[in-house]
Amino acid sequence: MFFGIVFLAMGGYEFWEGSKTKDWPAAPGRIIESGIETRSSSSRPHGRSSRRDTDYSVRVRYSYEVTGQKLEGQRLQYGNKSHDKQSSAKQVQSLYPAGKEVQVFHDPKNPKSSVLLKGSGTTWLAMGLGFMALVLGSATMVYMVRARKAGTGDNMPSS
To answer: pTM, whole model, 2 decimals?
Structure first.
């Protein structure tokens, strides 16, 4: 249940923030640098040999100007997606080469908050996983409480 709540909260926050970007104005900008971040982890499922999982994320840094103020941003989109394959990440990264002119969408109330893509990306995935974990955790808890009552005789009628 805990993990369900955490994933729902994280996904909900990213979804909420991403939905606000649909009304953000655009300012001209330029990509300063672009690359792919690799994150590896190993897992050892149930005594088997360890397995390496690698995720690839597109990282960008861009500059833009709002009302004469020069700003920099790094957020591609709320709910940034990590990729299982490096080729998939490179395909997205190729859209943002260093030096490319881009439209930067910024919060009119806080121009330092910006994105290159409006919307909330894959936050639906975190919310879906969170909901499933919450439902499974709740069902397990109900089952355990009922099993405990049945085992102790608490639900036996009194004479």
So the answer is: 0.63
